[in-house]
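input
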Amino acid sequence: MQRIRAWLSLAVTPVQWLVDVPERSWTWLDERLQVRDELIAENKQLRAQTLLAERRVQKLAALTVENFRLRDLLNSSEQLDEKVTVSELIGINSDPFTHQVIINTGFDGGAFIGQPVLDATGVMGQIISTSAFTSRVLLITDSDHAIPIEVNRNGLRSVAYGLGQYDYLELQDLADTADIEVGDMLVSSGLGLRFPKGYPVAKVVEVQHFPGQDFARILAKPTAQLSRSRHLLLIQTPQQQSLVEQRGN
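output
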């Protein structure tokens, strides 16, 4: 009987295996689904962590660049004889034909109309209006702006006019025989008592001579980073300080 029972058990084994297949299949599928869900959740978490890490890296890169800009700005301010206030750009004018920016220093911070504004590399413009906590700056490239300059190489004086383009200023009143060359540095001349003398304004990039014309056409590229600078310097000469104090009294 034991031998017969063994053979019968062997005969029904495939039937038992077939009966158990659905249960085994369901268990296998359930395990795979759990593993898949865990992998999906882990991937989402890792993706989120990666994005956070990338954001931190970008922030660190931005902070590093900003620190370099601030260091350049502070180094340039140490070379100035005038009173200097550090300000920050907080807005721009959306009109493409108007080159103006907004800074976070107003008359409460000592800003005043006509005050020169520089960045770490040159003259940017001047304040044209103020409120308690902000001021509006007209850039030197605006078509309504003009700044007295002189050629640093030989002292030749002229006026640089804005053309409404961030890359160019134009000298319109220099004789065709004037001693000016491509590469000459133009600095503020101090005439008009608005911009202090000796600050970089632009570098000559093109000199055009026209036969029969009395004046040459001279284009210069501003040295200031007009479309990129964020931290700025507000300059106040002793003469301007006296005028501000007189107006206050």
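quick obs: The first strand starts at residue 83 and ends at 92.
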